[in-house]
Design a protein that fits this description.
It is built from one helix and 36 strands. The protein has 442 residues and is mainly beta.
Length: 442
Amino acid sequence: AVLTFRYQVVHFFLPCYCHQAVFWWYCSLPKPTQMLPFSVKAVISVNADGTINLNARSVNMNGSPLTSSGSNCNELKSVLCMEADRFIPYQSIATIGVHKWHSFEANNNLYLLVANYRDLDVFELESQLFKFDSFTNLLTPIQNITTFGATDWDSMEIDGITYVAVSNYRQTVPSGGTANYTATSPIYLFNTTSEQLQVHQPIVTTKGRDVHFFKVNDDFFLASGQGDNLVILRYSDATGVFETHLNMSGLGSLEDIKTFTIDGSHYLATSSEDTTVDNYVFKLDNGAWERHQNLSSPDEGYDLTPFELEGEMYLVSLVFETSARDRSATSRIYKWDSSLEMFRSWRTFVGSGASDAEVFEVDGTTYMTLANYGTGSSTLNQLLYEITPFGITVVQTWKNQGSYDDMEYFQWKGQHFLMHGVFSDTGGTSQRSMLYKATSCL
């Protein structure tokens, strides 16, 4: 079969005749980002199990021949996907000054929470709970939740019950009043019958910036970043509530908290926007969190993302801006050195007010998204990287007007999605976040 394409390709069929039966070999391909003339020449055979192979083929793209043998649909896609988008726009959602999106599953359904931070000087806003509607295949709002400068959501299932926590930063300042950074940041229960969040336990926070559930052995914890304090609560089986377990201070305007396990040991990492305070890695030793490593940086830390790649542990550490307030700042990926039991710098990349990274794996390939906050006055690049043990490579860019503060990756019913949370642009904080859906090039 010989096929010649001169326009943007969505999909194609190759006929194959075997034992007087007609077989169709089908590759679902996304539309490339630009016109890509190419031609395909293939010899097709049918295996005993009915699968179909391209025993030999040659692909000519933009005048450059690409040849291989023993190829299949995936190999052909890898050629055609060199210039194609991995994610394409799927749904636009009205939001206000987004600081964070969070996804969770309950009752065989998928839900997303948005943390609306502020609308100009108003911090008391309605954040929202969305459900992925199985009939429309769209996110539909099902609950408004009053928040006060919401900065983060997280969730965890304990004994079959989904607990959801919010982090609230501050309240709206009344006319002539002073700033009030004390607010209630409740822990909610998710009611699977009504599909609503119900307040389970009120938690008073001051400058709440991050909230993170984690588990150590059989115990469940909730970490809350409040100013330069890290407050850790432990779930009590006896009372059914979270009780104060630990309070650590002097951590320098906390931005993010992450936990992970390496070789059976438990670690906790913190990032600080205070340029005089390092990011820290703590190790759990005999029930106490001991400072294990300083990830020294003179710049403003932001998001932390631990991930594994081929059995090795890595940690993405984003820098929002330098101590000189330059947002074209260098962020870093660390790799765990087992011999030293410490992280060592592995790769660097430059962001523009880098504010959030998501790392996920699809069919054996590891990807990292990067949300850039920028200055809010220019077109910015939001980036998708492919990560291998040999380095990182940009495979897609999104050019969007405005400041992006968050990206949330999730899967649902075999599909891959990526939510871009928009904080603001030159027109203000009432913007539209964009949900993207993966193409077959991912």
